[in-house]
Design goal:
Shape: globular
Number of helices: 6
Number of domains: 1
Main location: membrane
Distance between the termini: 40 Å
Helix content: over 70%
Number of strands: 0
Strand content: under 5%
Keywords: Cell membrane, Membrane, Transmembrane, Transmembrane helix
Protein name: DoxX family protein
Structural class: mainly alpha
InterPro entries: DoxX, DoxX-like_oxidoreductase
Largest sheet: none
Membrane topology: Multi-pass membrane protein
């Protein structure tokens, strides 16, 4: 039984890592498009200045989300976005109370740690990083 689990793990872990990266990035990208493009419309972001902390967050979310969907510069992008989410939690949520469920900070914490994991683990089987690395190795 353990041999079967080990085989499934070796076959599916890199693919499931890619699924985690892509799904997380698509969800995260929506925060950037809501802030910068008004889609989907979130009334809180009406009149948002690009040169504000929330505007900067929107740029990071839009560009970072697209890079993560593609799996390009995954480790660096995920590390930067993890820091953004830690900053967002401590600036925007923690002052409202200790418990994340009460200060609405659960999503920021979850994104922070998923991005931190991606920074350590990489983009998985279906990433441009992996494809570019493989083609670079084959050309030498």
């Amino acid at each position: 039984m353990s041999a079967l689990i080990a085989q499934l793990n070796s076959q599916w872990a890199p693919r499931l890592l890619s699924v985690l990266r892509i799904v997380t990035a698509v969800l995260f990208l929506q925060h950037g498009t809501a802030k910068l493009l008004g889609f989907p419309h979130v009334p809180f972001f009406d009149g948002l200045s690009l040169f504000s902390l929330i505007g900067l967050a929107g740029v990071l979310e839009l560009v970072g989300g697209l890079l993560l969907i593609a799996g390009l510069l995954t480790r660096l992008t995920a590390f930067i976005l993890s820091g953004e989410m830690a900053f967002a939690y401590f600036i925007g949520h923690a002052p409202k109370g200790f418990f994340p469920i009460l200060n609405n900070g659960e999503l920021a914490i979850l994104f922070c740690f998923v991005f931190l994991y991606l920074a350590a683990a990489g983009g998985g089987a279906w990433s441009l990083d992996r494809r570019l690395c493989r083609s670079k190795l084959n050309s030498t």
